[in-house]
Structure formats: structure tokens, C-alpha cells
Amino acid sequence: MRATLTMLGPAFVASVAYVDPGNFATNVQGGARFGYALLWVVLMANLMAMLIQYLSAKLGIVTERSLPELCRELFPRWLSWGLWLQAELMAMATDIAEFLGAALGLNLLFGVPLFTAGLMTGAIAFGLLELQRRGFRNFELAITALLGIVFAGFFYETLKIGPSVHESLRGLIPGLSSTTELYLGVGIVGATVMPHVIYLHSALMKGRMHTRDDAERKRVLRFERIDVLIALGLAGLINLAMLAVAAKLFHTTGLSGVSTIQGAHAQLGRLVGGGAAIAFAVALLSSGASSSSVGTFAGQVVMAGFINVRIPILLRRAVTMTPALVILALGLNPTSALVLSQVVLSFGIPFALIPLVILTARRTVMGAHANHRLTSLLAYGVAAMITAMNVFLIAQQLMG
Prior knowledge:
Blueprint: H1 2-7, H2 10-16, H3 21-34, H4 39-63, H5 67-74, H6 77-110, H7 114-133, H8 136-161, H9 165-170, H10 179-192, H11 195-205, H12 214-249, H13 261-271, H14 274-307, H15 313-320, H16 322-330, H17 334-361, H18 363-366, H19 373-399
Helix pairs in contact: 2-8, 2-11, 2-12, 3-10, 3-12, 3-17, 4-10, 4-11, 4-12, 4-17, 5-14, 6-7, 6-14, 6-16, 6-17, 7-8, 7-14, 7-15, 7-16, 8-12, 8-14, 10-17, 10-19, 11-14, 11-17, 13-14, 14-15, 17-19
């Protein structure tokens, strides 16, 4: 039991990205506009996430290298640099969502003006990153505690509001009826399966527990499967609850026009009470603060791995928070920016996932722990499905 608890942690850090403020935006919009109809997308995205994150963790355990490092070592230089550039663009989109979410949480809880809340969010992120500098275990525990707050918030919301079990089960049946549903569906996938944590998870496992032979690696991999199942299962429950609560509270009461996080918070307070609204805002703040720190850490892994360049992580945090501060300063709609950022992230998934599958399938890289043929086929199927959704979305937007 103690060994299991010692190994738990990396997947919880990765799972924070699966319940970041982008999920709040896409789930609220999806539930308000289409009721329970997109629950199947949330479930599918989380099942895909479990496979992807386990492959990333396996790569780090077996090779003691991160995915970006292996791309630099084994792929042509031009490809490695190209992957780095697109990864940095994805990191910017990620940071916008996470930073805006935490700022919105402070604004909703304490009435802090959004730009000032953005500066306060930066200070919170700096504090969490300082924990990471002092040791990975302290950082993991802090991030896991914040994830627990998000879970507690939506557990309370679910009990308080009571989404329909029958409608929720119907919502798990796949189907899309409009381009708008597809747009939000792609956004939900982008908000759930996030490119930067595909890179990060391998780095979190690198050198965490040195293994001397395949038998020890097999044992560590078994513990990591438990870590991934618990952490990603928890994240999946939060996302399902988030969308189902929005469906029950907004769609079924004729409030399908609720499209912003601020609007959802206000309606929660009006329809359910102040406690529900506070729980929502606290969960949003915890989600934004934790995922913003994780995103910055992932950005450092990406740069160091792909191009072997390191900059102080606090400097990186200061640079990457700038686009989000600009959005807040200009007074743009933060929820719309959140949803758009998640759609952008979905386009970056194949660029992280395909190299991961290629490398984990190679016996020259993974030895006895190379993917089984079925595992590789499933992973390639995930990449193909996401790519097809993106292409179809572009075509629909052009024709529309």
C-alpha cells in the first residue's frame, strides 16, 4: 500500500490539465446549449486521455527520457524544430485558457477587476512554481490538493442540483446533429486531451524511480497504470458532472443562451443559491491556478527537450502570461477566448500523439515494453479521429 501511495502523483499533475478552465467554458456552453447530448464526447475524450497519458508515462519510465528529448535525438533536426514551434503555439493557447480561468475565479469570488486578478494569478502561479523548484513531491501534493478542491466543488454541485440520471445515460449515446455541436465537441476534446501534458507526463516519470531490469520496469508500469486510472477517472467524473449540471440547470429551464462563465456563476447564485455559486468560483480559481503552473512547467519541458535550451521557469511564466493579460486589458470576452483556445489545442494533439505512438511502438526504443500491435492501432485511431474532426470542422466553417 505504501509503495502504491509513493508512486501516485505524476498522473494527478497531468490530470489537472484535463479539468482546466477551458473545460469549464466548453462544458458550460455544451450543457446549456445541447443539454446532455455531448456527454458521450466527454466520456470518449477521457478514455482516450487514459491511453495517451499511460503511453507518455511508459515512455518516460522505460527510456528515462522525455518525449521532446527523444524527438530531438531520433528525428531529423528540421522535424524536431518544427514540432517545437507548434508545441510553443499550443502552450500559448493553453496558458490563455488557464490564466483567464483563474482571473475569472478571483473576479467572481472577490469582485477583483479582471486585469488586477490576472496579476494576482501570476503571483499565485509563481508561488506554486517555487514549490516545484524545491522538490517534485511538494509540487505534486499542492496540485493534487487543488484538484481535490475542484472535485469537492462539483460533487457539491451535483448533489445540490441533481442532474437527470436517465438523460445522462442517453447523452452517452454518440451522435452530432449540427456544426455548432461539432465545434463544441472539438473544443471538449481539445480541453480534455491536451498536447502539453502528453509531453509533460513522460518528463515527470523520467528518473523518478530508477529501474535496473525489465522486471522492475514492469512493476513500476503497473503502479503507473493505477495512478493514471485514478487520476484520469477523477478528472472524467468532474467533467461529466460539470456538463450534466449545466444541462440540468440551464438547458432544461430555458436558459440555453448561457454562454459565459460569468453568466453561469450568476445563474447558479440565482437558481440554486450563494453556496453553489461560491463552490463554482472556488473550483474555477483552483483549476486555473493549478493548471497554469502545470502548463508553465510543461513549456519548460518542451523547450529543453526539443531544442536543448533552458530559461528560468519564472521568466517563462512572466513571458507566457502576457497574452492573457493583453486579453484582459482589452476587455475581450474571456469565455469566448477560452473556447477558441480549446479548439486550437485540439489541432495540436496529433503533433504530440503521433510521435508518441511511433516511439512507444519501436523495440529499439522500448525494448520488451514496446506497444502491442492493438495498442498502437488504438492510439493511431485516436489521432485519426481527432484529425478527422478537425478537418471536418474546417470544411464546415469554409462552406458556411
